[in-house]
């Protein structure tokens, strides 16, 4: 399971994100970007962050470490902004924390070219999880110590917002024309050959086991958190086998 820590100080909001994540200190002396259950799409966004972030890590991508972050709403009492106070008050309990990468810079494709091999791996992974938020407008990539890191997977697996249509939604192609790395001739064929066989039932069971029960409770149509975990795994398993053939909008590298 993800390590659990407790927030001890709310430092500042991070205004780059539409859901107003924040920077906090925790009782393990770490500094984390906190993503709130009370923001935006709520706990489903956090579920997507855990499933896709932990899957990325197991497939060999660089991802900041994720933790569950317990928050006492009293931390917001001294905040001058009403929006921040409201967010903290509505997010008591278990939230998501991501290691803060001090000194990391937002990705700029003009300053940091990427090989077709690395571009292919990232494009293939984003196609697998149907990431609609890694475009040139908003790459959701960081450069830290000369290496590329993946962040922010809340806008993925859009099928989990409408479970009755999950099969049709998960079967759709992935348009990579505006992907942040499309210009680097991504070699998705090589990426699929490497990564697709590694996306197994056992791996997905391990990944979905990281989701806190509290974020899976009371989902319509599911009796238990484990039943919902299996529902998250099924479309990813099916998609891994075929998604390389359904990526459009790029000229693939050789």
Short description:
The chain is of the alpha+beta class.
Strand order of the largest sheet: 1-2-3-5-4
The overall strand count is: 10
Percentage beta strand:
15-25%
Gap from first CA to last CA: 39 Å
Class computed from helices, strands and strand pairing: alpha+beta
Q: What gross morphology would you assign? A: globular
N-to-C series of helices and strands: EEEHEHEEHEEHEHHHE
Q: C-alpha Rg, in Å?
A: 18 Å
Number of helices: 7
Structure, explained:
This is HipA-like kinase domain-containing protein. It holds the Pfam family HipA_2. The chain contains 7 helices and 10 strands. With 254 residues, it is an alpha+beta fold. The protein is globular, with a radius of gyration of 18 Å.
Write the layout of secondary structure elements.
Layout: E1 4-13, E2 22-26, E3 31-35, H1 43-58, E4 66-71, H2 82-89, E5 93-99, E6 105-106, H3 116-129, E7 141-144, E8 147-150, H4 166-170, E9 174-175, H5 188-195, H6 201-208, H7 225-242, E10 247-248
Parallel strand pairs: 1-4, 9-10
Antiparallel strand pairs: 1-2, 2-3, 3-5, 4-5, 6-7, 7-8
Sum up the structure in keywords.
alpha+beta, 3-stranded antiparallel sheet, 7 helices, 19% strand, 254 residues
């Amino acid at each position: 399971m993800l390590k659990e820590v407790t927030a001890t100080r709310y430092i500042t909001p991070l205004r780059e994100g539409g859901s107003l994540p924040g920077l906090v200190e925790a009782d393990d002396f770490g500094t984390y970007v906190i993503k709130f259950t009370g923001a935006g799409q709520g706990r489903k966004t956090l579920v997507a962050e855990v499933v896709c972030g932990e899957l990325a890590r197991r497939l060999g991508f660089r991802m900041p470490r994720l933790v569950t972050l317990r928050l006492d709403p009293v931390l917001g009492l001294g905040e001058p902004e009403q929006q921040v106070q409201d967010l903290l008050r509505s997010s008591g309990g278990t939230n998501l924390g991501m290691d803060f990468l001090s000194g990391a810079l937002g990705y700029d494709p003009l300053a940091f070219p990427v090989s077709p091999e690395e571009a292919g791996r990232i494009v293939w992974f984003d196609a697998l999880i149907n990431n609609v938020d890694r475009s040139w407008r908003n790459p959701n990539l960081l450069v830290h110590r000369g290496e590329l890191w993946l962040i922010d997977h809340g806008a993925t697996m859009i099928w989990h917002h409408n479970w009755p249509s999950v099969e049709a939604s998960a079967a759709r192609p992935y348009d990579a024309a505006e992907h942040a790395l499309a210009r680097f001739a991504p070699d998705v064929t090589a990426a699929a050959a490497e990564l697709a066989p590694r996306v197994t039932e056992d791996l997905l069971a391990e990944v979905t086991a990281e989701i806190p029960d509290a974020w899976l409770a009371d989902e319509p149509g599911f009796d238990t958190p484990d039943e919902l975990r299996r529902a998250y795994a099924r479309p990813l398993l099916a998609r891994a086998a075929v998604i390389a053939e359904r990526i459009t909008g790029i000229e693939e590298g050789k």
